[in-house]
Structure formats: C-alpha cells, structure tokens
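[step 3/7] fold_predict: job queued, chain A
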Amino acid sequence: MEIGENTIKLLPAQESDRKRIYNWLCKSDLTSSVLGLPAYPDHPIPTFQEFCTAYPLSFFNASGDGKGRVFIIAVDGVDVGTLGYDLLDKKKNSVVLDIWMKAEKYCGQGYGRVALNALCAHIYENYGITTFAISPSRRNKRAIAAYEKAGFKYVKTMDRQAQENEFGMSEYDDNIFMLKRFAKTQST
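[step 4/7] structure written:
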C-alpha cells in the first residue's frame, strides 16, 4: 500500500526500518531542535529501547492498521522522513499524528505538509476519522508554522498533567495542541 501521488509517497514502515527511523529522530542534525539539551531538558533523547516502547512492533506491521502505524515519507524514491498516527479512536472520532524529517536538508520543502494531508485523507477515507491532532512543543516554531500550512489550528497549550489526562502520555512541558478537521462530506 502506498499513500500519495506523484513524487511524494507514504510507504508503510517495516520492522527493518525501526532503527533508522530512530536514528532520524535521535541522531540527526535535527535532533537538538526537538529533543534533549540545551533547548529540551524536559524531553531527553530516548534510548532505542525507550523508542521501541513508545513505538511497538505493531506500528511497523499491518497489525497496527486502524490503531497506530508509521510510514516513511519518500520523495522521488528518496526517504526524507517519517509520519505516523496513534490513538486512533473511532468513538472520539480522532487520531494523533507525529512527524519528523530525516535531516535538515529535507525541511522547508513542503514535504511534511503534503505527507500530512495525504495521511489525513487516507485515515478519513479508510476509518472515517475527521479530527486530527498534532502537538509540538511551543519552542518548535518551524514545526508549528508547517502544521499551520497543512491546515492545523492552534487550540491550546498543554502542560504535562493536561497531556496525561487527555492522551494517557506526555511529551513536553509546553505542548501546543493543534487540530485539523475534515467535514464529513470532504473528499481529499
């Protein structure tokens, strides 16, 4: 299964992709802009084992479809980042998205915006979900601007306790909670 058209595609990640996706998050030239010291003492760089706990094997195989899944963003056949969804809840009609690029050189190209829109359309078409959430740190201005370009709107800032109450997990001390909504009649 591929999601997307033309040059930007979302390819379902496999177990064999897990380590390199971890490296993109935790060992790239972008890592310090989202994790660890000096800017993110509240969100240290996870070990590979901690990453695997947060992203279990189901995210890397078909058993995660409809619950939580990770995709590789490929542009003209080159892997440029990853995008996934979690906490898909049909009763609440919502899903949480997470995205990061492989390296600085792939940022600012519009790849993330296109990939986010493609995944939202895929989830809407396959699961009927119309509410999409994403929650970067307030400190990550570039991510916030990119999500706004993809149609996400600021809702509120959430501290760790509010995140725990809402999602059963927390990331940053200053998450920006952003939503994108599809109308039930919207195609893509």
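[step 5/7] annotate
The domain at 3-181 is CATH 3.40.630.30 (Aminopeptidase).
The first helix runs from residue 18 to 26.
exit 0
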